[in-house]
Design goal:
20 strands, about 30% strand, nine-stranded mixed sheet, globular, four-stranded antiparallel sheet, alpha/beta
């Protein structure tokens, strides 16, 4: 585990909320809580809230490293989008000239929005929701998690080069995948509180989730962990009666406990614009992500919220390895070499798709395992052209890959599996993997 590779970012919606205005009390409440733990807040603002919060955000920037990103203005057509976005961008630049780059915030995303952002030199877009459909009118199923480059010709595709996509809030990769409902299994305080996964006095579920991300710093140069809480859900005034005072206090205690927990690790805590700039400095295209994720022994409560869509599958769920790059997204369950999930991003144009592909048959033609060597010969029976991968699960402590033919990448992940990434070219393909004990060469 290499906790210094984990980048933690906290985001809060502080833009005006319809005719209710700005939840100033909620903003103050979140600021006091986060700053007590030395955590910078990235505030989502619009023209209205900039006028009310400019001086506070500038002060918090100097003292705690706070930052600001722009809430996407409402628009009816492309002309109004470009006009309003340009006007709001000018207000953002004037109020916060110290911003390292401009980031937009919305969950309602389309190709023309990405194109307009590129023209106005935005660097990032916050609001993607991995594995989500239906909730809040946002259906992003098919996109990657974490950070990736969104394509202006396909906003759900990680094949862009200019706009870094950032997820709304970090999800539980194992449970969101296997239950097919990402909203309950996340770092959003209100969702896990309503689902009974956490309480104001018990955040063991969050600790486990954070532990999964921490563990995966061993396999990645950088792991991004974004958490979000709306200011209007931390204010119990008459204008913002979205949550009861009891629920707000419970969310506040949960965040307080979680901030204390993560502060025990030497992680990087930074604003979202800073994190996106770091990603852009390190990667000119979408970087591969390698994530091992486990089930939790904590299950949701049985209540009206968890029964809203007919209930939640209970598991247990197998250990799962998840991967994505600019061409595909793959998931493997423990023990199985072929993917449990295969998403192909190449050549896709319909953003209503989830990009799932049928998984071709995989056969093992040779398997030899002794105390020092593991040899496997796979055959993939397929007449399709597409990205693909295999995973060999085993206790690989002390082993290294000696050879692997016909692949673009082969790597041992946390001593638990060997992952092979390659492409299929419209005909059967053979992959030969050889692992050898490191002690053999000593």
């Amino acid at each position: 585990m290499k906790p210094e590779r984990l980048v933690y970012t906290f985001v809060s919606y502080a833009a005006s909320f319809g005719d209710r205005g700005v939840a100033v009390e909620g903003v103050r409440r979140i600021a006091e809580l986060a700053h007590r733990h030395g955590i910078p807040v990235t505030w989502i603002v619009d023209g209205t809230s900039i006028g009310l919060l400019k001086s506070s955000i500038c002060e918090w920037h100097e003292r705690y490293g706070d930052s600001a990103i722009l809430a996407c203005p409402a628009y009816k057509d492309e002309a109004e989008l470009r006009s309003r976005l340009a006007d709001e961008t000018a207000l953002l630049k004037q109020a916060f000239p110290w911003l390292p780059g401009r980031v937009l915030a919305t969950g309602f995303i389309e190709n023309r929005l990405i194109a307009a952002m590129e023209e106005l030199d935005f660097i990032g877009l916050w609001g993607y929701c991995w594995q989500q459909s239906w909730w809040d009118g946002i259906s992003h199923r098919g996109v990657p998690w974490g950070f990736w480059y969104a394509d202006k010709d396909g906003y759900k595709l990680p094949s862009g080069r200019r706009i870094v996509a950032a997820e709304w809030t970090a999800r539980d990769l194992n449970l969101a995948l296997h239950t097919d409902d990402a909203v309950y299994y996340s770092t959003d305080p209100n969702d896990v509180l309503r689902a009974g996964l956490c309480t104001g006095d018990d955040i063991d579920y969050w600790k486990k989730l954070f532990g999964d991300y921490l563990r995966n710093t061993e396999s990645n140069d950088c792991v991004f962990f974004v958490q979000q809480q709306e200011a209007h859900e931390m204010e119990a005034s008459q204008r913002f009666a979205f949550c009861t005072e009891a629920d707000i206090e419970a969310s506040e205690r949960m965040l307080d406990l979680f901030f204390s927990h993560i502060s025990a690790y030497p992680i990087a805590r930074m604003s979202l614009p800073e994190a996106i700039c770091m990603y852009r400095d390190r990667h000119s295209f979408t970087a591969p992500s390698y994530m091992l994720a486990d089930d939790s022994d904590i299950r949701p409560a049985l209540n009206a919220y968890t029964m809203l869509r007919g209930g939640i599958p209970q598991g247990p769920w197998p250990r799962t390895f998840l991967y994505y790059d600019a061409e595909c997204q793959l998931a493997f369950i423990k023990g199985k070499s072929s993917p449990h999930l295969l998403r192909n991003y190449i050549g896709k144009t319909d953003m209503n798709e989830e990009f799932k592909e049928p998984v071709p048959e995989v056969f093992v033609r040779r398997f030899v395992r002794d105390a020092r060597t593991i040899e496997i010969e796979y055959t993939i029976e397929s007449d399709r052209v597409m990205p693909f991968g295999l995973a060999y699960w085993d206790d690989l402590a002390g082993y290294e890959i000696a050879s692997c033919e016909e692949v673009s990448e082969a790597v041992v992940v946390q001593e638990q599996l060997a992952f092979m990434r390659f492409g299929l070219k419209g005909e059967p393909k053979t992959i030969k993997l050889v692992l050898k004990s490191k002690a053999q060469g000593e």
